[in-house]
């Protein structure tokens, strides 16, 4: 029962997390002792393994289709979604005011990892619902909150995030969608949006499209963007939101990615005109953290598959004796250890970031709340990108362990790889996360986020006595001191990699200090192994970061025509 085992290990990581005791204290009504956590996370494991995983196998092969202007989902999606909603899994982190369970983000992330382990395509629907609720409850007027928040939390209605347009994806200031005010307080929204996950479906009767659009008198650039809630239907009549197409994708076949046309659709202003992008970041940040859960889920699935296969597949050994299982071979052991260590520190990274989100939201002391917020600001771009890349790397290594079998559709490893590849693209590409970390977290805001992490990690290094963590932090400090705005755009990515290795080294050092139970010993061994890998890899990333503009010195001399 790999999901049950994963749930148990997740709970062990949560309870061992130094910040978790404070989370428990700030959520006293939740009663989050070990028994309660095992019940909640174990329940998520049950529905993930018993309902969602079987759906994903069929959904990947069947996919979604566009039929007479409406999206038809893969067979079995309605039944799986009904079971998910009936189990209350959309309500975990929702505010009690809206019918939510009011549990901490770290509990939500633990359950979300297991859902994404079973099917990241399925997990693409509840994430924008949860994150849109945060925007609506913070910036929506009372009527909008009362109408939408309870139904989004309950899973009765759905939501999307609509930002990108043709030739204006990450270049948000160039968005062209327009919103014109009407005399009745509504707006008419006109424009084309792309890359909209679950842009249309019939799992719920209504969808809230959270749309960035420009008002007639708006200033140019991002300062002129406002946020609108455009419902899929208005007063019982389908709104003029048209599905142009469903994208044909490498993976996530159970999740329809739509191009939508807004043809004078009725919408409602959310919050303050001209503050749409800043307000929508409430949703974007939540979705980036969910990418971490997706990466952790796929990484764990790939590691588990590879270890189980290697323990059964027989090949090699003495010619006059029966073949041995391939996990007896040194090279395979090396790959398996790397897989498991990467998956476990990815999980620890997501849980730590989630705990910081809880502390930022609940701490009553302003200093403690500020520190948690600064640590979260450091962890978010690292969590999003490291987890995304971990999923791809772990899936690729799992295919290598399975050999030819891993390349076939008989085994799920190739699906893990296809599903994982987009994680480093949506909700902000790897390059965007790198620029965010270098320009905003280190060079911007007086480096508060960077300095908060460094102080926290240095304190843990001293208490844990981890020499390797000290070396990782030394390399990070040296590289950060060399950053400047002119060269940061060139070396931001290797710096992000270096910062990720230092940060996961911090996670690993904490794990390496555990002992006393078989699970703790298991986690400690993986933590020690990751420190070995991180130390070696960080040296290379530090060297690349130190190259500065030298990393692109050859660019002007390259002749593109000679590439063929």
UniProtKB/TrEMBL annotation:
All residue ranges annotated as the Acyl-CoA dehydrogenase/oxidase C-terminal domain in the record? 274-438
Family to which the UniProt record says this protein belongs: Belongs to the acyl-CoA dehydrogenase family.
What are the record keywords, sorted? FAD, Flavoprotein, Oxidoreductase
Q: What is this protein called?
A: Acyl-CoA dehydrogenase family protein
For whether the record's keyword set contains Oxidoreductase, the answer is yes
- Needs which cofactor? FAD
Q: Which domain of life is it from?
A: Bacteria
- Residue ranges constituting the Acyl-CoA oxidase/dehydrogenase middle domain according to the UniProt record: 161-263
Concerning Pfam families, the annotation shows:
Acyl-CoA_dh_1, Acyl-CoA_dh_M, Acyl-CoA_dh_N
Domain Acyl-CoA dehydrogenase/oxidase N-terminal positions = 45-156
InterPro entries membership:
Acyl-CoA_DH_CS, Acyl-CoA_Oxase/DH_mid-dom, Acyl-CoA_Oxase/DH_mid-dom_sf, AcylCo_DH-like_C, AcylCo_DH/oxidase_C, AcylCoA_DH/ox_N, AcylCoA_DH/ox_N_sf, AcylCoA_DH/oxidase_NM_dom_sf
């Amino acid at each position: 029962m790999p999901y049950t085992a994963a749930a148990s290990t997740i709970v062990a990581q949560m309870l061992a997390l130094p910040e978790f005791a404070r989370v428990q204290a700030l959520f006293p009504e939740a009663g989050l002792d070990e028994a309660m956590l095992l019940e909640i996370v174990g329940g998520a494991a049950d529905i993930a393994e018993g309902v969602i995983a079987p759906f994903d196998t069929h959904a990947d092969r069947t996919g979604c289709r566009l039929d007479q202007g409406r999206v038809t989902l893969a067979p079995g999606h309605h039944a799986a979604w009904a079971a998910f909603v009936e189990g209350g899994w959309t309500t975990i982190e929702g505010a009690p005011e809206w019918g939510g369970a009011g549990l901490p983000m770290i509990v939500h992330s633990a359950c979300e990892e297991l859902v994404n382990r079973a099917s990241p395509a399925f997990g693409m629907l509840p994430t924008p619902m949860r994150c849109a609720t945060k925007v609506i409850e913070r910036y929506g007027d009372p009527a909008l909150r009362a109408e939408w928040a309870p139904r989004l939390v309950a899973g009765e209605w759905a939501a999307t995030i609509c930002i990108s347009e043709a030739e204006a994806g990450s270049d948000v200031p160039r968005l062209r969608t327009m919103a014109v005010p009407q005399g009745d307080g509504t707006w008419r929204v006109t424009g084309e949006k792309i890359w909209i996950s679950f842009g249309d479906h019939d799992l719920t009767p209504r969808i809230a499209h959270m749309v960035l659009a420009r008002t007639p008198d708006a200033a140019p650039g991002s300062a002129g963007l406002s946020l609108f809630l455009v419902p899929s239907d208005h007063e019982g009549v389908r709104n003029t939101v048209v599905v142009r197409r469903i994208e044909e994708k490498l993976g996530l076949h159970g999740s329809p990615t739509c191009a939508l046309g807004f043809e004078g659709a009725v919408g409602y202003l959310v919050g303050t005109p001209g503050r749409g992008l800043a307000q929508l970041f409430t949703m974007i940040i939540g979705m980036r953290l969910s990418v971490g859960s997706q990466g952790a889920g796929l990484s764990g699935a790939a590691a588990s598959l590879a270890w189980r296969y290697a323990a059964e597949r027989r090949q090699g050994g003495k010619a006059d004796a029966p073949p041995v299982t391939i996990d007896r071979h040194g090279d395979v052991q090396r790959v398996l250890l790397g897989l498991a260590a990467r998956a476990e520190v990815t999980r620890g990274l997501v849980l730590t970031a989630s705990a910081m989100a809880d502390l930022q939201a609940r701490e009553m002391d302003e200093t403690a709340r500020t520190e948690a917020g600064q640590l979260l600001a450091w962890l978010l771009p690292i969590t999003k990108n490291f987890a995304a890349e971990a999923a791809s790397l772990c899936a690729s290594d799992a295919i290598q362990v399975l050999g030819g079998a891993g390349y076939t559709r008989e085994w799920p490893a190739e699906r893990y790889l296809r599903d994982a590849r987009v994680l480093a693209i949506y909700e902000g590409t790897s390059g965007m996360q790198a620029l965010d970390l270098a320009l905003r977290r280190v060079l911007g805001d007086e480096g508060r986020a960077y300095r908060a992490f460094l102080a926290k990690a240095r304190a843990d290094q001293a208490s844990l006595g981890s020499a390797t963590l000290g070396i990782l932090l030394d390399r990070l400090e040296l590289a950060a001191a060399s950053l400047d705005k002119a060269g940061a755009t060139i070396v931001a990515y290797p710096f992000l990699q270096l910062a990720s290795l230092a940060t996961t080294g911090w996670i690993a050092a904490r794990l390496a200090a555990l002992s006393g139970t078989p699970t703790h010993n298991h986690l400690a061994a993986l933590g020690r192994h990751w420190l070995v890998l991180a130390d070696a890899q960080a040296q290379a990333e530090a060297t690349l970061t130190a190259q500065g503009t030298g990393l692109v010195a050859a660019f002007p001399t390259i002749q593109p025509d000679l590439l063929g």
